[in-house]
Design goal:
alpha/beta; Rossmann fold; globular; 9 strands
Length: 264
């Protein structure tokens, strides 16, 4: 492990010879690991991490090719992404219960991680993450033109960004057609936060957006009905980035969890 000379708040370790950068702050009776949404690195969590670090140890990191982490070709498969998260957890001397937080497509990563490494995870927080049927249900609910416009927008973004970021867009494109399952673990507390606040958007995507919100909420409500260990919090005050708009909504749930389960 070493300090990044360009940023005293960011450290890094080597994983198979490649640098993974991370921010590690706070201390307490639990360790919270933050897994960002698509194309986003640890900087997206900076304000949230600062608030949360008053109550727990908090770790954020840059995936391959994002932020200060080295780019690794072919690193945007779910198997690599979960192994990369495991490298973070294994290399940072964590000796308290681990809570994983996944935002957006980060929710796919933490759910798969909890499936593969069940003994390492004590709780999941899913921040505006998607049901594994979301994209298929959405596609079937839309006119072909609206769906093609959405996919074309992602492709355009992919083709006009640096390689590490473009690979993340490729991962998102694969999710659109994937049949992979991202299960909810049965034996740990799971917190699911869903935003229903619509934000201004380009005119041609307005109807797409309305249907996306409808499908998203319906599927997440189904999860809440199915799993007794899942607490579903719906907000109309936050955008997709609930941790930026309403950090206290998430932090209050975390503090209750820690106080009731992880105090020594």
């Amino acid at each position: 492990m070493a300090q990044d000379s360009e940023n005293n708040n960011i450290k890094y370790f080597l994983n198979e010879g490649r640098k993974i950068s991370y921010r590690d702050s706070g201390y307490g009776s639990a360790t919270i690991v933050l897994v960002s949404g698509g194309t986003l690195g640890l900087e997206t969590w900076k304000d949230f991490q600062e608030l949360l670090s008053k109550y727990a140890r908090v770790i954020s990191y840059d995936r391959s090719g994002l932020g200060n982490s080295d780019y690794v070709p072919n690193s945007k498969s779910i198997n690599y992404l979960t192994a990369e998260l495991d490298a973070v957890i294994n290399n940072l001397d964590i000796d308290t219960p681990v809570i994983l937080v996944g935002h957006s497509i980060g929710g796919y990563i933490v759910r798969k991680y909890a499936e593969l490494y069940a003994n390492k995870v004590k709780s999941l927080f899913l921040i505006d993450t998607y049901h594994d049927l979301f994209f298929k249900e959405l596609k079937s609910s839309l006119k072909e033109e609206a769906w093609n416009d959405y996919v074309g927008n992602i492709i355009n973004a992919r083709d006009n960004t640096p390689v590490g970021i473009s690979d993340e867009f490729d991962f998102q494109l694969k999710l659109l057609e994937s049949d992979d399952k991202y299960s909810i673990p049965l034996n740990i507390p799971v917190f699911l936060f869903t935003s229903i606040k619509e934000t201004p958007i380009e005119e041609k995507f307005v109807e797409f957006n309305k249907m996306a919100f409808k499908v998203h909420l319906e599927l997440n409500n189904q999860l809440a009905e199915k799993y007794g260990n899942l607490r579903h919090i719906v907000t109309n005050k936050s955008s997709h980035f609930i941790y930026l708009d309403e950090p206290e909504l998430i932090i209050n749930e975390m503090l209750n969890l820690i106080d009731n389960n992880f105090q020594k």
